[in-house]
Amino acid sequence: MKGLSKKKIYFITFLSIALLCTFGFLWAWFVTRDIRKNVAGALNQAQKVEVKNLILTETKNQRKYWELYAKTGSYDSSSQVVVLTGIIGNFYDENKNVALSFESPKGTYRDSDKNVTLEGETLIVSKDGSSILADKIEWGGKNTDIIASGNVRIARNEDFSTISKKAVFNSDFTFFKIIGDSKVQIFAKEGEKQEKVNLFNTKEK
């Protein structure tokens, strides 16, 4: 790995997560094919449901927006929340290609408003090699964008890296904003550190 550039390392990470997601989705599809039709009814009728190899998907404008695979899912009908563990997944672009891949040890899915919250050391990698690492990442519900919070670290290829309390970005990573006690490092094309600046130091209201 010593001879690889950061861009290649991020690309390999993205590709590995994307391939792992694809394998997980295919394997879970075969494992759950006999119970898939009954899951929705079971969730509505039972107080609590434990499911292994769970797949959740959301579509927008008749196309797949995101899809996640979890090793386990525990649903409580009283709260309408699914507690997830061992999570991997993808966001998709308008051409149905993977735009972002993510991985997290645990999270929740709220059925009432399709809110997803990933917690722990959660990693998101984009197809161009950019990455976001945070304690918590959330989307859905009232949020039109994806929100990362807690020790947010963003690295964009070999161009720059940031550290902040919070970041807001979209599903294809063409837009992002960092918020709160932010530090930015800018790098030269050769990979040597060119400049380190503290662009701003804000406090959340």
Summarize the structure in words.
- By secondary structure, this protein is of the alpha+beta class.
- It has a single domain (6-200), classed as Lipopolysaccharide (LPS) transport protein A like domain (lipopolysaccharide transport protein A fold, Sandwich), CATH 2.60.450.10.
- Helix content is 18%, strand content 57%.
- The chain has 2 helices and 11 strands.
- A hairpin with a 4-residue loop joins strand 2 (63-76) and strand 3 (81-92).
- It is globular, with a radius of gyration of 18 Å.
- Residues 27-38 and 191-205 have low confidence and may be disordered.
What is this entry, summarized?
The protein is α+β, with helices and mostly antiparallel strands. The protein has helices at residues 6-31, 36-45, and strands spanning 48-60, 63-76, 81-92, 98-110, 115-126, 131-140, 143-156, 160-169, 176-179, 182-187, 193-200.
